[in-house]
């Protein structure tokens, strides 16, 4: 695809897209999730945890790797729903055969099952790798945002030549591209995919909730506010419609898209 909003004529593949919910944090309030949230109502505002699947024929791309049930227990206040690798198998995808794993960024809730995809090329932005392997990743609250074992695995995979390091926008497969937004982290990338419904954008943490991007109100964890706003603009321009902007942590995704039969409450078909 020449750009996510204008697929190249004739050779762009169309992809099915799924959201896979594996955990949820019910004890969460609205002011936690908005920049300078002190002026946001203190009301319950659960957060859902997802990874995403793109399928085209026998090909599959997995976007993000979640966190494990062990991490959920260790961190607490995270209700486990289903092991995402089991859900992938229920959707007809064998994790050990997946060819591409996109890590939108390296926070703990996006990296936990990286090792479950032994055949995958792992796609990460160079600025994301550099930040978390450098001195700033060890300062302040940053260590709490990652899992050291996950970081070590990504570094080891890079040493083995299994990490494809991107410096900005890149095509993963025909019809699927990543776009560097930054904002939430230095190297956050979103994923745009050509589907039968149009160009769909998986925002990951560029917009945790519908309310972030639709109300122009960034999330509370900010690396660069300007980049967050630019990311909102790019996503809105790239997606074929507002309905094809899929936020990274909103429980409403499970209500706004049809459930996969037999996987109700776990997986929905996005396009």
From TrEMBL:
<dbReference type="InterPro" id="IPR001279">
    <property type="entry name" value="Metallo-B-lactamas"/>
</dbReference>
<keyword id="KW-0862">Zinc</keyword>
<protein>
    <submittedName>
        <fullName>Glyoxylase, beta-lactamase superfamily II</fullName>
    </submittedName>
</protein>
<dbReference type="GO" id="GO:0016787">
    <property type="term" value="F:hydrolase activity"/>
</dbReference>
<keyword id="KW-0378">Hydrolase</keyword>
<dbReference type="InterPro" id="IPR051013">
    <property type="entry name" value="MBL_superfamily_lactonases"/>
</dbReference>
<dbReference type="GO" id="GO:0046872">
    <property type="term" value="F:metal ion binding"/>
</dbReference>
<keyword id="KW-0479">Metal-binding</keyword>
<comment type="similarity">
    <text>Belongs to the metallo-beta-lactamase superfamily.</text>
</comment>
<feature type="domain" description="Metallo-beta-lactamase">
    <location>
        <begin position="48"/>
        <end position="249"/>
    </location>
</feature>
<dbReference type="InterPro" id="IPR036866">
    <property type="entry name" value="RibonucZ/Hydroxyglut_hydro"/>
</dbReference>
<dbReference type="Pfam" id="PF00753">
    <property type="entry name" value="Lactamase_B"/>
</dbReference>
């Amino acid at each position: 695809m020449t750009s996510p909003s204008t697929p190249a004529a004739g050779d762009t593949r169309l992809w099915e897209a799924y959201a896979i919910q594996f955990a949820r944090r019910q004890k969460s309030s609205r002011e936690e999730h908005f920049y300078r949230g002190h002026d946001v109502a203190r009301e319950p505002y659960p957060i859902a945890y997802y990874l995403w699947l793109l399928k085209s024929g026998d090909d599959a791309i997995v976007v993000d790797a979640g966190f494990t049930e062990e991490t959920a227990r260790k961190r607490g206040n995270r209700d486990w729903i289903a092991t995402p690798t089991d859900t992938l198998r229920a959707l007809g995808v064998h994790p050990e055969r997946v060819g591409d794993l996109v890590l939108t960024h390296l926070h703990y809730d996006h990296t936990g099952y990286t090792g479950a995809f032994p055949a995958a090329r792992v796609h990460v932005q160079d600025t994301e790798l550099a930040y978390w392997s450098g001195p700033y990743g060890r300062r302040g609250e940053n260590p709490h945002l990652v899992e050291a074992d996950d970081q070590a695995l990504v570094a080891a995979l890079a040493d083995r030549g299994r990490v494809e390091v991107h410096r900005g926008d890149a095509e993963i497969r025909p019809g699927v591209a990543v776009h560097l937004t930054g904002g939430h982290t230095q190297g956050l990338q979103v994923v745009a995919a050509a589907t039968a419904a149009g160009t769909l954008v998986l925002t990951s943490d560029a917009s945790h909730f519908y309310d972030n991007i639709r109300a122009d109100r960034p999330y509370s964890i900010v690396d660069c506010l300007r980049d967050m706003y630019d990311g909102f603009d790019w996503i809105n321009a790239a997606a074929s419609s507002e309905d094809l902007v899929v936020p990274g942590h909103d429980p409403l995704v499970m209500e706004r898209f049809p459930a996969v039969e037999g996987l109700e409450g776990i997986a929905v078909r996005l396009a």
